[in-house]
Design a protein that fits this description.
Two copies of one chain form a homodimer. Chain A is built from five helices and three strands. The longest helix of chain A is centred in the C-terminal third of the chain and has 21 residues.
DNA sequence: CTTCTGTATTAAATATATTAGTACAGTTAA
DNA sequence: TTAACTGTACTAATATATTTAATACAGAAG
């Protein structure tokens, strides 16, 4: 389910966050689905529960999961996500990447076609 | 020229790297232009020269600047940059951002139009 | 020769990340 | 109720990363 790279210089809790986000976004984890408990996942990865807790805490702050005391942590349904702030962040990120793509002279068409391909692949819910 | 955010949790050398890259990509710094020396910039920002050195070292490894011993550090001309690896990184980054944009249901058209706008703004050298 | 440049190194100090252990409150099921 | 699970919080100790400090060397420029 999860793979940690101990050689990587990025913190473990960041790696956990990223992988959880990827699974949510890809649809591998569905709305309101229960994700492993802090202690469970810690045991699976043989790392400290506090590290998982830190990852979950930030995922919750960013709106990707929600936690219910004594019950568990669950995937936030897509429609419940507070989108506006996140969309702004994503667009800023997008701008930065595209400006550098322009700098290294990747043609506009190539970028646009790539994006359309991504939307075609799994964009069946947002293809307006 | 540079602004550091001491409150930010991102390392100073990262902030310097990011700002230098932004200035290069935006064209504020031109090809073969001399950038401030390690000691100069350290004095300007009232931080340690070693921190600047670390930023410059990575910028050089990533191909954005080149350094000549005893002369200074300079902006790598765009055409001399080893692009392939960097383009791969940028496309991976782009994919990740776009997949999340899809997840939060931003329509394809909006993304594409935004990118075309960016290319139109300053893409006069890569508008094929 | 003097002053500037990049580069390198070592040591100390600070900040961040991780582990370890413990505790509390609430849920679930036996 | 009891037992086992959940999230959450906290402190302390350790490990790693970052930053500062102080030097030093080699080459370029005036």
């Amino acid at each position: 389910m999860f793979q940690l790279n101990l050689k990587d210089h990025s913190p473990l809790y960041q790696q956990i966050k990223e992988q959880m986000k990827t699974m949510i976004i890809s649809g591998a984890l569905k709305a309101d689905e229960k994700i492993p408990s802090v202690r469970e996942l810690a045991q699976m990865l043989t790392i400290n529960p506090n590290t998982i807790q830190k990852a979950y805490k930030e995922l919750e702050q960013e709106g990707f999961i929600y936690s219910i005391r004594a019950k568990g942590s669950f995937v936030t349904p897509r429609d419940n996500i507070l989108k506006e702030v996140r969309i702004n962040e994503l667009m800023t990120n997008l701008e930065k990447t595209v400006r550098e793509l322009i700098y290294v002279q990747v043609p506009c068409q190539q970028v646009v076609l790539y994006i359309k391909k991504l939307y075609a692949e799994e964009g069946s819910t947002a293809d307006d």
